[in-house]
Amino acid sequence: MDIDIKAVLGSYAQLTIFLLMLTIGLEEGFKNLSILWRRIPLLIRCLIASFIVVPLSAMLIVSIVPMDSSARIGLLAMAICPGAPLTYKKLTGMKASTALAGSFQTTTSLFAILVVPIWVTIFRGIYPNQATVEASDVFQQVMTVQFIPILIGLAVHKWFPSLAENLLEPLSKITSIMFLGFVIILLVVALPIVLKIGVITVIGVVLFIIAAILAGHYLGGPEPENRLAIGLANSTRNAGLALALTTMNFKDQPGILAAIGAIAVLAFVADAIYASLYRPKIPQPVLETFGSQP
Predict the structure, then answer these.
(1) CA 32 to chain centre
(2) What is the separation of C-alpha 207 from the centre of its chain, rounded to a whole number of angstroms?
């Protein structure tokens, strides 16, 4: 019997993301996931960093770095798609605040439903093309991939706390192993593509990632722990949503996939460097509270 490797890998990725989102709901609960909504100045700065500074930085980069058209499309698509499903697990591994990571991820995903179509319209006017996207398209992708499993986790956390507590430890171990496998698959699949994109596109991608980290860092506020979390979260863009949008509008352009893959892969490297350099500035007692209830 022939096995469709692509289908198997796709199913594995979907299951991994589903379990990761379920874990967020079980572990953090509504109180933690809504933390940004109780800190309105920080919420506003996060939205500015994610939905204004990053897209504007991308526009500047594509205007000065001579990338080909498909690479520019991929970079601009990633610029308007924050709230990647892997944000929470990635920041957990880099010892950043899990509460802020989960709140940033869910909040920016929610706002993306309204803001992404606006940016697509703006880009269509600036860079003449026929691209279009409806809020319903973004809503469907975000709800299916992220919010349905998160809501299930939140419901169990709220109404069946003992079950949530019993599930959390084994599920966290399973998702950690599956997440590692997902990252390895990402590297195996994306790295050969990334290596072919050329020096010019790599320069543009690196500048983009640095701009996203700096935007989150400086708009994250004066607290070092907030700066670390928002800097990392802001540079973790939603490759799945970006691919969905570009697939709907641009056919058979491998350069788009290459640019999106390059951002996803190189962001892991850049974020690890940033976290290792900045984490020592965070007081040890604060680091020890990460992942606990506020």
Answers:
(1) 18
(2) 17
Amino acid at 239: A
| Residue (of 162, 171, 168, 194) closest to 263 by Cα position | 194
Indicate the angle between helix axes 40-48 and 98-126, nearest 10 degrees: 40
Instruction: Quote the tokens at residue 124.
Output: 């269509």
Number of domains in the chain: 1
Range of the domain at 46: 5-289
What whole-number distance in Å separates Cα of residue 228 and Cα of residue 27?
A: 21
Do the beta carbons of residue 92 and residue 291 sit within 8 Å? Answer: yes
Dist. CA 107–CA 89, nearest whole Å: 16
Nearest to 50 by CA among 191, 201, 220: 220
CA dihedral 32, 180, 9, 164 (to 10 degrees): -40
**CATH code of residue 204:** 1.20.1530.20
Q: Is residue 123 in some structural domain?
A: yes
pLDDT of residue 279: 87
195 Cβ contact partners less than 8 Å away, ≥ 6 residues apart:
none
- Token pair 């992942």 is found at 291
In a domain, 294, yes or no: no
Amino acid identity for residue 26 in this structure? L
Contact 107, 46 (CB under 8 A): yes
Per-residue pLDDT tens for 262-284? Answer: 999 899 999 999 999 998 888 76
More confident residue, 200 or 283: 200
- Spatial neighbors of 251 by CB under 8 A, at least 6 apart, are none
